Amino acid sequence: MTTLYVGVGASSSATPEELATLLRTALARVPGEVAALATLAGKETHPAIAATARALRVPILTYPAAALAAIAVPTPAALPHLATPSVAEAAALLAAAPTPHLALPKQKGPHTTLAIATPEPPEGTRGTAPPEEPQK
């Protein structure tokens, strides 16, 4: 079974039910076993994220905004209040390192986002190339 890392973002208005619904829809498209949720540092106590991790019985991996901002993603957003153009995609890719593949790009709910990465391409696909290292 494919190991999945689910990157999640949630605004203060997000509910556990909203994130659970978005995740169910995503997992119907990308079957596998969720190994962890991943998000922006400080969001691990958000009720929607914490409840989803408890329901799945998986850990929450967190990353600082600077680490998320260093990851190239296919669907960046303008998130000046977070200091990163991506939470869900970047967090999923970081969690699935060292050779991550974006299995499902960012999906949006009213107050949540999620993306799914795998540590290797899903069977029968080529997957997405690993993110490039930032230029120094």
Automatic annotation (TrEMBL):
Keyword Methyltransferase in annotation: yes
Source organism, top-level taxon: Bacteria
GO biological process entries: cobalamin biosynthetic process; methylation
One Pfam family, short name: CbiG_C
Annotated CobE/GbiG C-terminal domain residues: 4-117
Alphabetical UniProt keywords: Hydrolase, Methyltransferase, Transferase
Name of the protein this chain belongs to: Cobalt-precorrin 5A hydrolase/sirohydrochlorin cobaltochelatase/cobalt-precorrin 5A hydrolase / precorrin-3B C17-methyltransferase
Organism: Actinacidiphila guanduensis
